[in-house]
Amino acid sequence: MTNRPPYWFPAKRYGWGWGPPSTWQGWVVLALFAILLVVGSVLLLPTYGALVFVAYTTGLSAVLVAVCWLKGEPPSWRWGGK
């Protein structure tokens, strides 16, 4: 047995970054991101316009990347292989 908890987001097989979640916690984070994105589009876009929505989306994306960075497998460029 390993002492480390499993990664929520495994590294992609090709390229740089993370693939789909591998644990329920990762799926919750991804679902929350999608829900907040839809809620923001319904509430912010008609009221405040596109610029505020783009800033909101950028912030949400930054939080998602931060969670992936902290709870995911360390990213590096991958060419397939194993």
Q: What does this protein structure show overall?
A:
With 82 residues, the chain is mainly α. It has a domain at 23-72. It is built from two helices and two strands. It has helices at residues 24-48, 50-71; strands at residues 14-15, 78-79. Strands 1-2 form a two-stranded antiparallel ribbon. α1 (24-48) packs antiparallel against α2. The longest helix is centred in the middle third of the chain and has 25 residues, at 24-48. It is elongated. The mean pLDDT is 91.
Short description:
Helix content is 57%, strand content 5%. By secondary structure, it is mainly alpha-helical.
What labels would you give this structure?
single chain, 82 residues, two-stranded antiparallel ribbon, 2 strands
Oligomer: single chain
Q: Which series of helices and strands comes N to C?
A: EHHE
Low-confidence stretches: none
The SS-based structural class is: mainly alpha
Could you describe the largest sheet, including whether it forms a barrel?
2 strands, antiparallel
Termini, distance in Å?
21 Å
Mean pLDDT, to the nearest integer, reads 91
Strand content: under 5%
Overall morphology: elongated
Estimated helix fraction: 55-70%
Number of strands: 2
Counting DSSP H or I runs of 4 or more residues, the number of helices is 2
Strand order of the largest sheet: 1-2
Question: Radius of gyration from the CA trace?
Answer: 16 Å
